[in-house]
Specification:
- Helices cover about 55% and strands about 15% of the residues.
- With about 260 residues, the chain is of the alpha+beta class.
- The longest helix has 20 residues.
- The relative contact order is 0.14.
Length: about 260
């Protein structure tokens, strides 16, 4: 099945999910390496969505589900978050929501999502974003890039969050999803040929495999982690926004205001 056919299949699956779950999908995007701009030939489709249920669902006394895991196989990875869960996480400046909002691959969106988009920026907290991406970079660096031989594709799982940290520290806004945009804005020119060669290899082969550590990249990573750690500690972590805007949009989307 070619990519165009898979995209059409995804849209049909979204219709199927809405009917089977009695929900409305407000926004649905690609969230993985395809949205980052360097998918391998065998990369699956990481489909993520925000949905809302009928108003009475939120008035139940029993604990209700706030996620849907619809499909996970070699081609599709499809799951979503309930609107209430999404807005609660937005209040905490959860970086995932900003990534889904910035995805360059949108399978479905709605006027209701536009109401949420209008207030997203009010809840972005630089310190939360930097700590999130820094933690991701540190974990992946320790897990995958410390041996003499490493899985070369794992460099992206460290470089991307580090460049996202740099973007936030420089601009104070959520970073873009596209790795190329992050790299153009935040990576030193002398490292770009090395990283571009890795991107080309990843996009051409199902598995670029292992290779010797790329010392120039490891040195950059180790140095940058230390720099960002110090800068992150100095950021203001004070929350600026309360619940009012989130409550308002939640009630409006439930038809209660």
């Amino acid at each position: 099945m070619d990519e165009k056919a898979i995209v059409e299949s995804i849209k049909l699956k979204l219709d199927e999910i809405e009917k089977a779950e009695n929900i409305k999908i407000l926004h649905c995007v690609e969230s993985g390496s395809r949205a980052w701009g360097f998918a391998s030939p065998d990369s699956d489709f990481d489909v993520r969505f925000i949905y809302v249920r009928p108003a009475e669902y939120y008035l139940k006394l029993e604990k209700t589900r706030d996620t849907i895991e619809w499909q996970l196989d070699d081609v599709y990875d499809i799951s979503g978050w309930d609107l209430k869960k999404a807005l609660e996480l937005l209040h905490k400046s959860n970086p995932t929501l900003f990534e889904w909002n910035n995805s360059p691959i949108v399978y479905k969106t709605t006027p209701e999502w536009e109401q949420i988009r209008l207030i997203l920026g009010d809840y972005f907290l630089s310190k939360s974003g930097v700590y999130h991406y820094l933690s991701t970079a540190k974990h992946n660096n320790h897990e995958f890039l410390r041996g003499d031989e490493v899985k070369l594709k794992k460099y992206f799982y460290v470089l991307r969050p580090l460049l996202a940290c740099r973007w936030i520290l420089d601009k104070g806004t959520p970073p873009p999803m596209l790795f190329s945009e992050l790299m153009d804005a935040e990576l030193e020119d002398e490292l770009k040929p090395t990283v571009n060669a890795l991107i080309e290899a990843k996009m051409k082969t199902p598995e670029i495999g292992k290779g010797k550590r790329i010392e120039v990249l490891n040195e950059f990573i180790d140095r940058e982690i230390e720099v960002i750690m110090h800068k992150a500690d100095a950021l203001d972590g004070t929350k600026q926004e309360g619940w009012e805007k989130l409550d308002d949009v939640f009630l409006k989307l439930l038809g209660m205001r």
